[in-house]
Design brief:
globular, 12 helices, mainly alpha, 311 residues
Length: 311
């Protein structure tokens, strides 16, 4: 009994530590991304603490209930944020995941999907024209985009013959019996579509600040908007970490602090690549983005077929 309590306490402590780490890191990463974007565009840019300043400012404002169903955007904000924080306990973030033994790849796929439902709930609950347009675009994007990560995780599970997150989502796409053609195809597919997963230019068609004034976020304010902004920051960090786990798992065999630091160096490189692409490209039109995602989905399904054949 005492051993079980120690195990539970250790798991809870590891979850709390990992959640606090990503909560502290995400706004700082957002500030660094803004600074990098400004430098690429020959601007000074805000201070690296600007992400924290924005969140604190919004948390101190009144939460105006402008939506047709006021409680729905608020619930959606908590759902999205809570889903990503739970994902932080499931993913290996430079060390063994705290809930690795209690979860599997199927749960990870569901968490990725659930994290995107907040935009739909907020937009349809708000009821405004721009909010509904943004949510409609989000539906189109989700239908074509969310299966891509699911295919990558499932392909890893097929190669590893295991649904454990530490196996399937940790370089599993390259664990084929023969040459890992499926892993290479999925690497290209996810890399080309990755800005859309983290809602960044050129694929942020559901928000499109200069076109539909942030779409489904338009009716949100105060703490609710702060939670959605926090969710977007967390999504950039956690989805980049997931990308590293799926496709860049090498070089962490040293263990300990060195492995942890190397993992976050690789994650930082992925984030910097996303920021560079966003700073150097214009937003795609919705029809262009949908065609692009359709091609990526077709290629991903082809990769899943190759994975089933052992490649």
């Amino acid at each position: 009994m005492g051993g079980e309590l120690k195990t539970i306490a250790g798991t809870a402590a590891a979850c709390v530590a990992q959640v606090l780490w990503v909560l502290l890191l995400a706004p700082l990463v957002e500030g660094l991304v803004r600074k990098l974007t400004a430098r690429i565009q020959s601007r000074q840019g805000p201070p690296i603490w600007q992400g924290w300043f924005d969140l604190l400012k919004l948390l101190g404002k009144e939460d105006l209930e402008a939506a047709e169903v006021p409680w729905l955007p608020r619930a959606a904000a908590f759902l999205s944020l809570g889903t990503l924080l739970f994902m932080a306990c499931v993913l290996p973030l430079g060390a063994a995941p705290p809930l690795g033994e209690q979860t599997d790849a199927i749960l990870l796929v569901h968490l990725v999907t659930l994290a995107g439902l907040g935009a739909l709930m907020a937009g349809f609950g708000a009821g405004g024209t721009y909010s509904l347009i943004g949510s409609s675009r989000e539906v189109m994007v989700m239908v074509l985009l969310e299966p891509l990560l699911a295919v990558a995780v499932v392909a890893g599970a097929v190669h590893r013959n295991s649904l454990a997150v530490a196996e399937a989502a940790r370089g599993g796409v390259f664990a084929a019996e023969g040459f890992p053609w499926s892993g290479l195809v999925l690497l290209v597919v996810i890399l080309l579509a990755f800005p859309a997963f983290v809602q960044r230019v050129p694929f942020d068609v559901a928000e499109a600040e200069t076109e539909i004034m942030e779409g489904w976020l338009m009716e949100c304010s105060g703490p609710t908007l702060a939670l959605f902004k926090y969710t977007a920051m967390l999504k950039l960090v956690l989805y980049s970490a997931l990308f590293v786990n799926l496709f860049l798992p090498w070089g962490e065999g040293v263990g300990g602090v060195g492995a942890w630091l190397w993992f976050w160096v690789k994650t930082g490189a992925v984030i910097a690549l996303v920021a560079t692409v966003a700073a150097a490209h214009a937003r795609y039109r919705t029809d262009q983005a949908v065609r692009w995602f359709g091609m990526m989905l077709a290629a991903a399904l082809g990769a899943l077929w190759l994975a089933g054949l052992g490649y």
